[in-house]
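Thread: "does anyone have the structure for this chain?"

Original post by V.I.:
We have the sequence but no experimental structure in hand. Need at least a predicted one for the grant figures.
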Amino acid sequence: MAKTSLNMEENIAGLLCYLLTWVTGIIFFFLEKENKFVRFHAMQSILTFLPLNIIAWLVGWLGAPKWTPGGYYGLGTWSPGIPALVYLSWLIWAITVILWLILMIKAYQGEKFKLPVIGDIAEKHI
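Reply from O.Q.:
Generated one for you, C-alpha cells below.
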C-alpha cells in the first residue's frame, strides 16, 4: 500500500474517510491533497452519507409525535405523528449502517469500491 500525504497507509486513510461518515469524509477530502484513492473514498463518503443522514433525519422528524402550544385552556395539543415515516426513517438508518460497514471494509482491503451513480460522481470530483 502507498503512503498518503498525511503519512498514513492509504487503506487506513480510506477506512477513516468513512469512520464518522460524511464528517471524516470532509476532513480527509480537504487534508489529503495527493492520493486519489483517499480523495475518492472521502468524496464518496460525503456524497453517500450526508444526503442519507439528512433524509433520515427529516423523515424521522416529520413522522415523530409533536407538541403544539395552544389548544384548549392554553394547554397545547399532541399530534401523534406518522408511524410509517418513523419506520421508513429506521429503514434508512439500517441501510446507512450496512453501507457504512461495507464501504469501510472495502476501503481497508484497498479496493476502490464504487457505488452506482455516487461512485462515478465522486470519481469526477477528485
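V.I.: this helps a lot. The chain has five helices and two strands.
O.Q.: and Residues 36-63 form the longest helix (28 residues).
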